[in-house]
Amino acid sequence: MLKLFARFSTSKSRDICRWWLPRNTGGNKLQSFKFEVCLFDMSEPPQKKRKTILDFFCRKEKGNKKGPVDKKDPAPDSVMSNTETKPQPGSSNSGSNNRSSAVLDGGFDNTKAFYDKTNNAEADGKHFSGSSLNKSRSLDEGTTTKVEIDGRPSSSSWLEDRYSDKGATWRQNSQSSEHSDDEYNAPILSRSDSTDQPECDIPDHKPSQKQNDSLWKGVSLASLNRYPSCMPPLPPLKHHQDHQVLFKVPHAYSPEHPPTPHPYHYTDKWDSFHVRMPCSPQSEFPVNNKIKKRWEVIEGVYKKAILGPVELSDAICKYNTRLKADKNFGILYNFCFDVLSDGERKQFFEVVLPKIIRLALNLPNLITQPIALMKRDRNRSLTLSQQQIACLLANAFLCTFPRRNARGKAAEYHNYPSINFSNLYDGNPTYQPVKSEKLKCIFHYFKRVTTKMPTGVVTFTRQCIEKFPNWKNLETSLTDIHVSAEGTIEDDGDGLLQVDFANRYLGGGVLGMGAVQEEIRFLICPEMIVCRLFTECLEKNESIIMRGCERFSNYSGYANKFKWSDDFVDKTERDHWGRLYTSVVAIDALIIREHRQQFKIGSVLREVNKILG
Is 172 a member of any domain? Predict the structure, then answer.
């Protein structure tokens, strides 16, 4: 590694310089300057292998038996000891090595690789792929370019080239076209979901399955308390000021019939404290210079048969002026034309989609009372039936919710996650293949619920803690803990309180490019997505608990290699409200830029306060 230094300074009698530049100044006083160029040859700092939690366990024997500690490694009494490095005596650049090691520990020393990729791409005259751009975002999150935001080149004409012929064929078959093939121009750039997180050296594979001989610490997994044996008796379900129930109570769970919506007739509130529903009489939409009820427009659009993705995009654009059928549905077109087989595509558009449309248009009959928003700094619960959730998600699939497409700071719902699926449909499939896998999860969910509607109940609770405890003076002992680097939360946490390491905007990039822990959980349990409709972003003293969400899918891979696998039948028991004994708490995680930052007192206190909330 070569370092080049250039220095300018005022000359002195003891200086020896190579170039003298005399300059006359006032008073006939001569002043000289020198210019030095020094070239040094420095060695590369040593690369340090990042330690993982599995490395920590490998220093011990299996189970909870104490074993000898490798003398070459520091004692595991502190996690900090794994990342500390001492300077080598007699080394002139030991300080540099320490700084480099700290960067390597944090996993952000990608600068050299990033510039190598940049130079290679410029030399080849090629654009970056979406994955490369996502990895580079960790270097400077605030200065992403327009191509980084969308993950596709601005001059791309892939949509026109690939789908103009197929679109024409579908339009000819449906006989409901109002556009020509020439309208399929290159997609415009639009900002991706702001809740996507940058990828920072995250794994791309699903954790290994937990085995009987897996390494673990603490107490055995079987010794932990689990639902329902550790739960107190559940009180009768009632509607009160801080707990809204959207169906008739008292209610007893029936596997044959879903709960009855309450009240019988639709009631509406069009204000900033409730979800603005598309079926509200006050939701209006301009059509041909005339103001019409949005719901009348939506009902009229879906009176025609939707025979393919082109017709579906045209229908969605009829009541969403921000969306363009030839520019904002690239992922949807690719998924339907290139990913689905002819039989799968025919089944979806002829069997499943008509049921989704009927379910969505049944909104005024299933959601008959206004849904209160779960705003910040207030404890509140909302209980819905799984049928009501399916109805709300069907409307999100058709992008019917008003005022939820604008994402600027001046937008009414800028503090809420996005809910309409339009961002999931938009993009270039070449650079965003993970979105096709997400659509598989969503399509599979709707196939399941439209074939046999589940009859259970789900509760969403926002918890806010007003005063944090003084942890230093507490004498209460911590409960038992089981620690293992193998297995997954959704597979091995049955009967336990499971954690969603969330974005403060719940669901993170589930409708965008994200596909890590939180997004995957929302995809295999799509009922969790509905909380994005009414949950404001989390504060440092808040958490969200989701009770009773059903799992519908299996998956493989992680991050960019996430893939939908197959159907999953959730056999978890239910309580007498009808909720599955599955509780997931969402606590938004910090973005850690340097490995050791997470072990500082402030970071640790923030996390335990979150857990307490």
Answer: no
SS3 labels along 73-108: CCCCCCHHHHCCCCCCCCCCCHHHHHHHHHHHHHCC
Is 388 annotated as ligand-binding? no
Residue-range definition of the domain harbouring residue 459: 243-612
pLDDT averaged over the chain? 77
DSSP-derived letter for residue 497 is: E
- Strands 542-547 and 583-588, sheet pairing: antiparallel
- Would you state the structure tokens that stand for residue 540, as one six-digit string? 């440092």
In DSSP terms, which residues pair with 261 in a beta bridge?
A: 247
Q: Is residue 129 part of a domain?
A: no
Find out whether 503 is annotated in a ligand binding site: yes
Query: How many domains does one find in the chain?
Result: 2
Give the pTM.
Answer: 0.70
SS3 608: helix
For residue 184, pLDDT over 50 is answered with no
pLDDT digits (tens, 9 = 90+) for 379-421: 999 999 999 999 999 999 999 999 999 888 899 999 999 999 9
Contact 161, 203 (CB under 8 A): no
Residues labelled as active-site residues: 500, 518-519
Three-state DSSP class for residue 22: strand
Confirm whether residue 266 is marked as ligand binding. Answer: no
pLDDT tens digits, residue range 117-137?
A: 444 444 444 333 333 333 333
Does residue 502 belong to any structural domain of this protein?
Answer: yes
